[in-house]
Amino acid sequence: MNLEASSLPPLLALAVPLLIAEMARRGGPADEDYARVASYTNDLAYHGDDLLYASRKPGETSCRFQQVAEAIAVLSFCPGGIAVFGLHFDGAAVQDPVAREEAEDVITPAHPQQATLW
Predict the structure, then answer these.
(1) What are the extents of the domains in the chain?
(2) Using CA atoms, how far apart are residues 118 and 30, in angstroms rounded to an integer?
(3) Rounded to 5 degrees, what angle do the CA atoms 57, 60, 63 make?
(4) Distance CA 117, CA 37 (A)
(5) 3-state SS, residue 73
(6) CA dist 25 → 20, 22, 30, 82 (Å)
(7) Tell me, what DSSP letter sits at residue 111?
(8) How far apart are CA 111 and CA 79, in angstroms?
């Protein structure tokens, strides 16, 4: 299955900007955010397929989604942001007072030739 053709990108397009805004209100990712996201490594490595094929265990698929969304939000504060699944997230954009008012700057297509996110 092609991840960019799945429902994952549109869901991340909704969830990640909310997490970015929350972190930006706190002044960016805290040390706890980095530690928490780093702790997701094994879960995502061994159970990342839960994102494509729903887990039989209740709550596991939503847990993996939350982990990926949080990791992307934290990484979006790196210089230049992060491009993933055909999307680009830039946490620095919401820290700039002018850009904060322009929500479209938080998430943009990773490739200029992409006209829409969906």
Answers:
(1) 3-109
(2) 31
(3) 165
(4) 25
(5) helix
(6) 9, 5, 11, 19
(7) S
(8) 18
pLDDT tens for 22-41 read 898 888 999 999 999 999 99
Single-letter amino acid code for the residue at 42:
N
Confidence of residue 54 (pLDDT cuts 50, 70, 90): confident
* pLDDT given for residue 35 in this prediction: 96
On whether the CB atoms of residues 84 and 67 are closer than 8 A, the answer is no
Compute how many other C-beta atoms are within 10 angstroms of the C-beta atom of residue 4.
Answer: 12
* pLDDT tens, residue by residue, 66-102: 999 999 999 999 999 999 988 999 998 876 555 555 5
Which residue type does 62 have? S
C-alpha span between 51 and 44 (Å, rounded) = 9
Torsion of CA 100, 32, 71, 91, to 10 degrees: 20
Global model pTM greater than 0.70: yes
Contact between 32 and 53 under an 8 Å Cβ cutoff? The reply is no
Between CA 94 and CA 105 the distance in angstroms is 8
d(CA 62, CA 17): 17
